[in-house]
Design goal:
By secondary structure, the protein is α+β, with helices and mostly antiparallel strands. It folds into 2 domains: about 1-215 and about 465-488, D-Maltodextrin-Binding Protein, domain 2 (3-Layer(aba) Sandwich); about 245-460, Dipeptide-binding Protein, domain 3 (Roll). The protein is about 25% helix and about 25% strand. Helix 7 packs antiparallel against helix 9 (about 310-320) and helix 13 (about 415-425) runs antiparallel to helix 14 (about 430-450). The longest helix is centred in the last third of the chain and has 18 residues, at about 430-450.
Length: about 500
């Protein structure tokens, strides 16, 4: 019998296939096949259900108990136990580990192994993300307990998890092969292999999709509107929804030029966001008005995106000391991993020129962009995006404490009022009160202009019709991928 294979593409090599170290989308995507958390969202992302945990409950508002499944094995055959969870928690908090996810566990007071299959988690105070943080992948104690440096460990490119697929081949800049885990605790995935083709160039990815060498891919608006023939849709079905992501221009607030709020407001008012959406997405996207996504409880409907105002932008720049003789200038750095962002940078350059702002562009390969620009904070501005849940934790991006090596607050945003609201939010469990605090955070951040929030694209996925049992939901299509089959 011929093995069934799902062919996918990725724009970049994974750097560390380790759930506590995976900070780039390439690493996270591959790690999700290999590792499990204790819990996960249901298919509609409305409820939290067990994953490695069979049962979970709160003894009181700060004490959480997990009862683990007894049928789980690591991919090398060793039995999964509660000690692995404690080990993962201690490792992510170890001083030698540099990970933005360390702060995710900041509210945990203690993790106790009651027995091999029971854990008791005690929090410092009631915490709104008490359950969600245990969606993080768990690591094997028996393989890593003697590891001296997890940051450079061989494990990061030879991972062993509990998940439905094992990594069986990693050829950098070529192919990544995942094979079905015969002993997966739910059941063996019905597709035998998943092969990721590493294709940095978006045009090449598009060509691979058009020639049916890729089974599932993303299309951009221009491609679906102008660059595919009607025959394309005989083989592929289209699944389109608003993406759980937004694109922004992040200002490096450590640099003197961006410390003046008049400058930040002027730059924001110089941008025509609707024009960006119209040119880039042709109706397949919308303007972004702030840090949380529409559809979630944290979204603040009363805050609207700024409308371009050239006159006011010029006036603000002049008040800040800039004019034709002394123009404001800066650089936009971005990556070519998406064909949209370099074009967006060019449009921004053109729009900002209308108020006398001089913009230089720097477009780089993804890993070089991360390692040479983003992580060392060597930029004026970055054109980037975030993928978010509908109820995200703003601590990771917006709290002053997250401005640290490995942290996601790499623009250096510090606002004591926002910090206090985030801290208040952490201890708010009632959903209505929580939503109100989140909406206040939304408004305060937008008023500060640390990011210039730009647009939310639609997610346009095309799926080869030979793949059976795909069920699109609010949470996307991947919730049931172990049930998929390929009909040749």
């Amino acid at each position: 019998m011929v093995a069934s294979t799902l062919h996918l593409s990725t724009s970049s090599n994974p750097s560390r296939i380790n759930p506590i170290l995976a900070t780039d989308s390439g690493s996270s995507e591959i790690a999700n096949y290999i590792f499990n958390g204790l819990v996960k969202y249901d298919k509609d992302a409305q409820n939290i259900i067990g994953d490695l945990a069979e049962k979970f409950y709160f003894e009181d508002n700060v004490t959480l108990v997990f009862e683990l499944r007894r049928d789980v094995k690591w991919q090398d055959g060793v039995v999964f136990k509660a000690q692995d969870v404690l080990f993962t928690y201690e490792l992510i908090n170890a001083p030698q580990v540099v990970s933005p996810y360390t702060s995710t566990f900041r509210m945990v007071k203690s993790v106790e192994v009651v027995d091999d299959y029971t854990l008791k988690i005690v929090y410092k105070a009631p915490y709104f993300k008490a359950l969600e943080l245990w969606m993080s992948g768990i690591l094997p104690q028996h393989l890593l307990k003697d590891e001296k440096n997890i940051m450079s460990s061989k494990f990061n490119t030879h991972p062993v998890g509990t998940g439905p697929y094992r990594l069986t081949k990693l050829e950098f800049s070529k192919n990544i092969e995942l094979s079905a885990n015969d002993d997966y605790f739910e059941h063996r995935p019905k597709i035998d292999k998943i092969i990721y083709h590493v294709i940095p160039d978006p045009n090449t990815r598009f060509l691979m999709l058009k020639t049916q060498k890729i089974d599932i891919g993303s299309l951009e608006a221009m491609q679906i509107e102008r660059q595919v023939q009607p025959s394309f849709f005989k083989n592929y079905k289209v699944i389109e929804e608003i993406a759980h992501a937004y694109t922004y221009l992040g200002l490096n607030l450590r640099r003197a030029k961006f410390k003046d709020p008049r400058v930040r407001e002027a730059l924001s008012l110089a941008i025509d966001r609707k024009e960006l959406v119209d040119i880039l997405f042709m109706g397949h996207g919308q303007v972004c008005s702030g840090p949380f996504l529409p559809g979630g409880p944290s979204f603040n409907r009363s805050v609207t995106a700024p409308v371009q105002n050239i006159k006011k932008a010029k006036s603000l720049l002049k008040a800040a000391g800039y004019d034709k003789a002394h123009p404001f200038s800066f650089e936009i750095a971005t990556s070519n991993s998406s064909s949209i962002r370099p074009y967006a940078a060019q449009i921004l350059q053109h729009q900002l020129a209308k108020v006398g702002v001089e913009v230089k562009l720097r477009v780089m390969e993804w890993q070089a962009f991360l390692n040479m620009v983003v992580f060392p904070r060597e930029f004026d501005t970055v054109l980037l995006g975030w993928s978010l849940s509908l109820s995200p934790d703003p601590y990771l991006l917006w709290h002053s404490d997250s401005d640290k090596p490995g942290g996601f607050n790499f623009i250096g945003y510090h606002n004591k009022k926002v910090d206090k609201m985030i801290e208040k939010m952490q201890g708010t469990i009632e959903r209505e009160k929580l939503a109100k605090v989140q909406q206040h955070i939304f408004a305060e951040i937008v008023a500060d202009n640390p990011y210039l929030f730009l647009f939310i694209p639609n997610s346009i996925q095309v799926v080869d019709k030979k793949i059976q049992h795909i069920e699109p939901t609010l949470n996307g299509i991947w919730h049931n991928y172990i049930e998929w089959e390929i009909q040749e």
